[in-house]
Every structure is written in C-alpha cells, then in structure tokens.
Write a structure and sequence with these properties.
The protein is of the alpha/beta class. Helices cover about 45% and strands about 10% of the residues.
Length: about 425
C-alpha cells in the first residue's frame, strides 16, 4: 500500500518567484514566467524561460497533487511528531518516493534537477547562482519541501503566480480558489502578482470586485518607479497615470494593494527625479503597502547592457538612500513602508505619517557617517542580509572575509577601502531580490 502511495506522489508547479511576504506560502502557478519580459532591470526570465498560460485542468491537478503530498506528510511526519519538524523523516520520505519512482521508470536518478541551465558553461556565474534558487521545473524534493515548510509556518497563506494573475478571468480564478479552500481549509489569505497596466486597462472595476469575491485578498504590483522618464528608460511598459488608476481601482474593489518601488532605478542621472516623481505618484495611488527593493544590476539584463555602453551609471549607495529619504519625506498618504528585500542597505520600516520622524532619523544617522564608516556599514549590512537569506555564509564569501572574522563577529576595519568595495559588490550580487 505504501509503494502505491509513493508512486501517486508527483511534483507540481510551485512558484519560485514570489513576494518576500509569501516565502512561506503554499503556491500554485496559473501561468509560467512573464508575458511582458522586457523590463531592463529584471533577470528572472532572461535565460530562455518561455511564457505560457496553464489550463484550469493543469492547475486543479496541481492542487490535487499538493493535497496528496500534504496527506502523506501528515501521515508519516506530522501525526507522529508533536513538535512538527523532523527533517530526517522528511529526507527519508523523499528518498523513498524517489526510489519508488526510479523502480517504475518515472524518474531516472535520485539527483533530479530543477533547472537544466545550472551547468550551462555559457551562463554567467552570478546567473548560475540565481538559477540554483529559481525552480523552473520543480522536483519531488522541491514539492515536498515546499509543503513541509508551509505547514511548519502555520499553513495559513497561499500565493498564485507567476507574474500577472490578472490576465485570467474572474471565473478562472474563482474555480482555482474554490479548489484551494476545499483542499486546504486552513488558508485565510490568497495573494497574487499583477501588472498595473492590466488592472488599469484590461480589468473593469466590476471584474476586480469579482476577484475580491473569489477570495483574492491582496495584489502585489511591481511599480518600480513613479517617474515616466524612468519607466520609459527601463521599458516597464506602463505609465505613472496607469499606476495610479490601477491602485485606486484595486482598493475600491476591496483588495489590498501592495506596491514595490526600486530605489536606484534611475541611476545617477535620474536619481533625484526618480525619488521625487515616485513620491508624488505613490501619494496619488494611496497603496496599503510600499515595499522597497533596491536595484541590483544582473548579467544579461538591459540595464547591464546600458551600463556597459556608458548610457546608464549605477547610483551610489548614498544616492539610493537619499532617494528613499525623499520618498519618506514627501509621500502624503497614510501607508506602510516595508523594507523586506535583502537588496536594501537599510531596513526602513514604519507607518506614514506616524513614523516619518523616526524613519528619517534612521536614514540621517547613516548619511552622517564618514566615507570609511559607510563602506564598513555596507559590508556588515550585506553580510547580515546574506546570512538571513541563506542561513549562513557560502564558502566563497567566507574565504573573502576570513581574515576579518574573530569568533562570531566580523571586524571590517582590517580591509582596505578597495577590498570593502569588492567584497560588498560580490555579496550584493548573490542576494536574491
């Protein structure tokens, strides 16, 4: 009987690309990858991944597979362990499933790959690192680990991906959310990514209300900038006016609106305008959440090519912080500022207008540092971000900072200015946005 149960377990399409707040959520893919895929800053789908819509049958089948995995984990791990977590039992179960699948020819080896491009010699080392995290073809291990982590995190939230769930009809979404809530009744929040262009131009106000009625609680928009000049520069394919229209329609429909802003996106040349125009647009949008995600230029992206051509100059970390200061100072609506990306130098969090003063004081404390102090601060901040994201240091990073490690602390003073800049740049390049 157990062998039959193990053979019924198949991997399903989980979402590698999701908001930080959904890192512990149960996920399902409505579409694969991004149909726009032209944003000059985005590395996510630049290694050959193609966009495709999935059928309702595909998605419902994934929900069924996820439920089977949940039942198996519950039977073999959670019911037998009052503390819930048992990584050894999980590994043993995954291995047993793989052996059963190998025996009956469903997979070829114990070492399944989530992405065939990881070993491609033509791909930049930074992108190879990125691909180890991007699960384009989730394996049995990926799927079980995903649901295991969701249960241990409380089993309350769900995210539907990939890049823009608003291209689907409310009827499609309703069938999906009904199936999810039937299979996983503990879920009390379902969120999606959306494009402001889609919300503004494709979806009517009534359709957005139907999304809310179907159980969509929050839409995460990649706003990036409120400056039309910056939006055009990075080929975002949307205007500040459409940003505003989308946010107002979504909130009127009763759906929480969370927007991502990318400090640094205007480069040195448009840094001031990016900060000012983004603050003005955000004020008009009045979103529930504003999430800061500092620009990092990845290989193979449009911005990397513009930088190499000399037509885009990356903003300094101080310029980026001054952009954030402008936003905190000038945003005129009541909203929540969240710094939940590993790319950010400062963790600036608070409620506007209530916490404006304390957030500005935090920013000004950094700006008051001397040039050497800023370099040391940056290294320490990035190291902490890396450890928070991955649970420890990679061998590559450890070897670079080893001479500054004493016990459990890092003494950045032992490095020259050039070393600090070089190490910090490398660590930043390994952080996932």
């Amino acid at each position: 009987m157990l062998a039959n149960n193990l053979l019924s377990i198949d991997p399903y399409e989980i979402c590698s690309i999701r908001p930080p707040t959904e890192n512990s959520s149960l996920t399902f893919r409505l579409a694969k990858n991004c149909y726009w895929n032209k944003c000059a800053f985005c590395p996510v789908y630049k290694t050959g991944a193609k966009f495709s819509r999935r059928t309702i049958g595909d998605v419902l089948n994934d929900i069924t597979n996820a439920k089977r995995i949940f039942n198996l984990l519950n039977e073999h791990i959670f019911m037998n362990n009052p503390f819930g977590r048992d990584d050894a039992a999980l590994y043993s179960l995954i291995t047993a499933i793989k052996h059963a699948h190998i025996k009956y020819g469903k997979i070829k080896s114990l070492h399944e790959k989530s992405n065939d491009l990881e070993e491609d010699p033509s791909i930049d080392e930074r992108m190879k690192w990125f691909l180890t995290w991007f699960k384009d073809k989730p394996t049995i291990e990926d799927s079980l680990t995903h649901i295991y982590s969701w249960v241990l995190s409380g089993g309350k939230t769900c995210f539907l991906g990939d890049s823009d769930a608003l291209i689907f009809t409310p009827e499609f979404i309703s069938r999906v959310t009904d199936a999810i809530r039937t299979s996983f009744p503990s879920i009390n929040r379902i969120t999606v990514y959306g494009r402001t262009k889609t919300a503004a131009r494709l979806r009517t106000a009534d359709e957005l209300k139907q999304f809310a009625e179907a159980g969509i609680n929050r839409i995460h928009f990649g706003m990036e900038s409120g400056s039309d000049q910056v939006l055009s520069l990075v080929n975002k394919g949307v205007t500040s006016a459409e940003h505003i229209e989308a946010a107002l329609k979504v909130r009127a429909a009763g759906i929480s609106c969370s927007v991502y802003v990318m400090p640094g996106l205007g480069g040195m040349e448009l840094s001031v305008k990016h900060g000012q125009d983004t603050a003005a647009t955000l004020t008009a949008m009045n979103p529930d959440f504003i999430r800061l995600r500092t620009l990092e230029i990845f290989p193979g992206t449009g911005l990397q090519k513009l930088t190499a051509a000399g037509t885009f100059t990356e903003a300094t970390e101080e310029q980026v912080i001054r952009e954030i200061r402008t936003m905190i100072l000038d945003i005129g609506c009541e909203t929540e500022i969240v710094s939940d990306s590993a790319t950010n130098l400062l963790e600036v969090n608070g409620r506007l207008p209530r916490d404006r003063k304390s957030m500005l004081e935090q920013i000004d404390s950094y700006l008051s540092l001397g040039s050497r102090e800023k370099l040391e601060f940056s290294l320490n901040s990035r190291i902490q971000s890396f450890m928070g994201q991955y649970g420890g240091l990679s061998g590559e990073i450890f070897s670079m900072i080893q001479k500054g490690i004493s016990g459990s602390t890092l003494d950045a003073s032992v490095f020259s200015d050039d070393e600090l800049v070089s190490i910090t740049k490398m660590v930043r390049g390994r952080l996932m946005p």
